[in-house]
Amino acid sequence: MVGYDPQAQVPALTSQDAALAGSGAGMITRALVSPFDVIKIRFQLQIEHVSSLRREGRYWGLFQAYRRIHTEEGLFAFWKGHIPAQLLSMCFGAVQFASFECLTEMVHEMTSYDSQTAGAHFVCGGFSACFATVVCQPLDTLRTRFAAQGEPKVYRNLRHAVSTMCRSEGVLTFYRGLSPTLVAVFPYAGLQFFSYNVFKKLLDPPPKVANSGGNLRNLVCGSGAGMISKTITYPFDLFKKRLQVGGFEEARVHFGQVRRYRGLVDCVIQIAKEEGIRGFFKGLSPSLLKAALSTGLTFFWYEFILDAMRNLKEKQKANLFTKDSQER
Q1: Which residue among 19, 86, 293, 322 is buried most deeply as judged by most CB within 10 Å?
Q2: Tens of pLDDT along 156-166?
Q3: Could you tell me how far CA 312 lies from the centroid of its own chain?
Q4: CA–CA distance, 89 with 87 (Å, rounded to integer)
């Protein structure tokens, strides 16, 4: 179980352990789910309807989008922006899980609440994601720009993108879309940790039954938590993506129509007026697939890496004890 547990039979985690496990989980998961992320971003940024019944835009379905991107841009297009995306995932995972473990420990030590309740996990999960978002937002903006550009490329590499954006748009451009991100990330991450906590308690075997299949349960619980939280908070993710590509319109022209938004409220109003309520959920299908995979794999790898680290420490401790006994 993630989060500080005063009744755990194993030694408590350090912040460094949680950061390392969170970083590793983010790195592995990002490499596996990147294609879904690229397709999701393309859907989110398309003004025209994403529908096989009304084929107005460049993309109108999940498999059609995959075939078109693969044909026009090659297989590696599904890993566009992978370097900033990997940096983002590793940084976000490290900050989020380390701060989550610290916050749940603070709840136990400084309040009368149980740190292992779903409610405590919702609040701590939300705040930990907000901390991680503020730290990692520039990397998220870079990742979005790389995934959104077609051919010919506007940015040759990460260094070129950073220098070009700083020179032409200013440093604050890296924090475009931060407000809808923070509004969305608190309930999104909170619901992830909340749902994961609930599912784990529902699916965990009774105390006297052998705890087999724990890794598979972690994957299933994480996948369910990811789909629930993504569906509820999805529109804010779309608003964030639209705002992040502001000032980047020249690279988007051949994808279809482009729009300029003056801020979050203007973005919401324009989308509702031109695209309807369904416009708020463009790209939801690949996003749900990605959310199920990414959240499930993140919790799976996080707990897997922590278990491996605990086993390694116990083995080292046992070896040290054996060595001391032999010397005596």
Answers
A1: 19
A2: 888 888 898 89
A3: 28
A4: 6
